[in-house]
Write a structure and sequence with these properties.
Elements: H1 19-36, H2 50-60, H3 63-78, H4 88-96, H5 103-118, H6 123-132, H7 138-146, H8 151-161, H9 165-175, H10 182-188, H11 194-210, H12 212-228, H13 231-243, H14 252-259, H15 264-269
Length: about 270
């Protein structure tokens, strides 16, 4: 079988591929990525994103082909001659699934994310950004997930927190689940930007569901938010709690408030929190 990134069946998932299918598609992704680094490749638009698809195969694909997918996506992200905007979705996916990145790939990806975060965008990158979208804080996010605490780590996070909406939302994702950022998340729930505020509310609810001591501290503020704001805030609170792998008793008053919310929609979806 030969992988074809434009002819995959609709509704398929990467975890349903056979080893032969996975291997063929990894080979096809490698061919497409290699084409991006040659002068004659031109600009290919359409079809599936080979970087994002390879990252998904590395995490969720057939066990027999994951090593090849990890090698390819690590090399592809580090490649400096391909437009970095192409890689945005894959880099965000890797940052979100950073715990799944194998030990041998973590340092090369950390170095690549560090270099690509600080490098100036080339003329070609700026010219074609309209086709692929600015990578924004994606590389900074991956770097912060893979790097050890350091003054530079703190500086990078501070830069995100003082940046635009997308950068502040990324900073919240980095802080979620990390010790020592509870007050920062609580402060961000009062942000004037609605998207940043919603991201912070969800992060705080997630953290409180995990940590009983934190739940005792932030339960009242979360209840006040549920009382004062609309469905979007309630959905974000519920989503944060639902994402938590475990829950403590301290978050129960918030769950009870969702179950008795004025909105029928919120009451119906809070059934999943049982």
């Amino acid at each position: 079988m030969r992988g074809e990134l434009t002819t995959l069946p609709s509704g398929f998932t990467v975890d349903s591929l056979s080893p032969a299918e996975g291997g063929a598609i990894v080979a096809e992704c490698a061919r497409v990525m290699d084409g991006y680094t040659t002068r004659s490749s031109g600009i290919a638009i359409g079809g599936l994103d080979p970087y994002y698809f390879t990252a998904q195969l590395a995490v969720y694909g057939p066990t027999a082909t994951r090593a090849a997918a990890w090698e390819l996506i690590t090399r592809g992200i580090a490649e400096r001659h391909a437009l970095h905007e192409r890689k945005t979705a894959a880099v965000e996916f890797l940052a979100e699934h950073h715990s799944a990145i194998p030990r041998l790939c973590r340092e090369p990806l950390r170095l690549a994310a560090h270099d690509l975060t600080t490098a100036s965008r080339s003329d070609a990158s700026s010219l074609f950004a309209g086709f692929f979208g600015d990578p924004g804080p994606a590389f900074a996010w991956l770097y912060l997930e893979l790097a050890d605490p350091s003054p530079e780590w703190d500086s990078r996070l501070t830069d995100l927190l003082s940046g635009n909406e997308q950068e502040r939302r990324t900073a919240i994702r980095v802080m979620t689940g990390r010790a020592g950022y509870d007050n920062a998340l609580l402060a961000l729930t009062r942000e004037s930007n609605t998207e940043v505020r919603a991201e912070a509310v969800q992060a705080l609810a997630f953290a409180a569901a995990h940590d009983g001591a934190l739940a005792m501290r932030v339960c009242a503020p979360l209840l006040m938010l549920l009382e004062a704001e609309g469905e979007e805030t309630a959905i974000r609170v519920g989503s944060g709690i639902l994402r938590a792998e475990s829950r403590n008793e301290g978050i129960e008053p918030v769950i009870a408030a969702l179950r008795h919310h004025d909105s029928l929609h919120i009451r119906s979806i809070s059934v999943d929190l049982a």
